[in-house]
Amino acid sequence: MTWQTTLTWQNAQKRAEVLQQIRQFFAERKVIEVETPALSQGTVTDVYLDAFTCKYNFLAESPADQSADLYLQTSPEFHMKRLLASGYGCIFQIAKAFRHEESGRNHNPEFTMLEWYRIGFDQFDLMHEVAELLQVVLGGDKAVLSSYQDIFMQTVSIDPLTASFDELVELLNKYHKSADWLIEMQNADLLLQFIFTEIIEPTIGVDQPQFIYDFPIAQASLARVSIDDSRVAQRFECYYRGIELVNGFNELTDANEQQVRFEEDNAKRTAQGLPVKPIDKNFIAALTHGLPQCSGVALGVDRLVMLALDIKNISEVQSFSIERA
Questions:
Q1: What's the rounded Cα separation, in Å, for the pair 287 and 196?
Q2: What is the C-alpha separation between 207 and 189, in angstroms, rounded?
Q3: Is the dihedral of CA 188, 189, 192, 197 positive or negative?
């Protein structure tokens, strides 16, 4: 019966408990809860993200006979950074996010995201705070930290920051993961991401949360370049029990550099035959006005509840999956 919920009453109570724990965690640290729009006039340019689009006929700047495109947020990031640029202090939000992608064991096109920003924090400060939240909700062992470069060296014995395209192809062949479409793209960064997803990810965070930090710049368009190594940016992810749980940044605050990175994203979209996305002008204007040095992170609430309940399918922690929505 597809009208019925996929979330049991027992699990609904546990989900509510997790949300309460999150809010208490931030209340104790005086991080303020905010709410921002789900609809936006701008969207992400990321090659690997697609937003839902809808039409709106009543924008003041739009001709009466012409609809404007609005986008459902893939995350509340741009709006929250605009709040920071407006003078807000440290903030968090538990929000619905939407991504035009296939549903699966860990994916639903509509999901709940926890996002927060800490003024004055660097990526390591924020990783430690994320680890503290995971301890509160999940208990268990403390988290471990590894750089992107180190995890490649340890797992596949290759340096991702110096490896050539041919060396990456050879590695894929060694693990029987090569595919014609991958080679035809002639994109070393795409190969790195594929190797990371297909070969390295399954080995990360098996028994305890594990943070991977300092990703290549091409994979971190919203993060600040590392002062120690200009080849990487201060982005981190956290994995636990086969689930990618967290994505965070020491935030890029330079408006000109951000504009360039968005344009580079759109150039990659064009090269891959994907539609160019409009750059969020309000977000760029906020950066131009001034964003304080801060670090921010997004955490998948549904996935966190899955871990708390030892559940293997995201539909069991959401009231209605997309198939029943």
A1: 31
A2: 29
A3: negative
Position 181 scores a pLDDT of: 85
CATH of domain 9-143+208-317: 3.30.930.10
Residues 88-142 pLDDT 10s: 999 999 999 999 999 999 999 999 999 999 999 999 999 999 999 999 999 988 9
- Give 136-199 as a DSSP string: HHH-SSPPEEEEHHHHHHHHHS--TTT--HHHHHHHHHHTT---HHHHHTT-HHHHHHHHIIII
DSSP element (H, E) containing 243: strand 243-250
pLDDT tens by residue, 187-218 = 899 899 999 999 999 999 999 999 999 999 98
Report the percentage of the chain scoring pLDDT > 90: 87
Beta-sheet pairing, 210-216 with 232-240: antiparallel
Q: How far apart (Å, rounded) are the C-alpha atoms in residues 225 and 40?
A: 28
Listed by start position, the domains of the chain span 9-143+208-317
Q: What share of the chain is helix, strand, coil (3-state, %, to 5)?
A: 40, 20, 40
Residue-wise pLDDT for 252-284, tens only, equals: 999 999 999 999 999 989 988 999 999 999 999
> For the CA atoms of the chain, what is the radius of gyration?
20
Interatomic CA distance for residues 81 and 117, integer angstroms: 8
Distance (Å, rounded) from C-alpha 20 to C-alpha 27? 10
Between CA 60 and CA 64 the distance in angstroms is 9
Q: Which two tokens stand for residue 42?
A: 């701008």
Q: How far is CA 141 from CA 131, 145, 209, 239, 261, in A?
A: 10, 13, 8, 13, 37
